Amino acid sequence: MCKSPASKAFALQLFSSCCRPTMLTIDECVEIMLLSGREGYSHRDVARHPEQQPVSQSTVSHLLEKFKITGCVADAPRSGWPSTSTEVEEIVLAKVMTSPKKSTRRTSFESGNPRTTLQRVLKKHQFHSYKLHVMHYMTEDDPDHRFLEHLEEDKDFLSKVTFSDEANFYVNGEVNRESVRYWCNTNPHWLTDDK
Predict the structure, then answer these.
(1) Does pLDDT of 7 surpass 70?
(2) Which domain of life does the UniProt lineage start with (predicted)?
């Protein structure tokens, strides 16, 4: 069968991914193995045996092949990135709670964890980044009041006005609300009264 360790590992990986559906327990897999060992039983007989849950013939053949290769019916350990420990989750959450205005890049650098780990933990605990909203205070001299006055005086005023989307960005220390986020699991309704 599989003589070299590399081919054995490949075969193990191949069969562990498709052998045991999530609906079968280890005991059910062992029962399938015992039934298939009986003389005169085909894969079809084992798959449709009345004393067990019905399975497909391919499940029986994959399970038998897996048993021949590994000597076991249990699944091999899953490959992939290991799950994040609770210690790391607590560290990340503590960092974000103490300084929610820091970027994920800065927080991951300070905590020593990859940025993707930080994002995965924040998503798991339902944290979202909230954008800063600018709240303008209205005074009597503001153009908005004059706008309303013009609207009341001239009913055709709106057809004479051109509206456009404009934005001002400052580099002298004022808040650039496009790049500032607040990480929290509830909406903080974060407002500023800057320009």
Answers:
(1) no
(2) Eukaryota
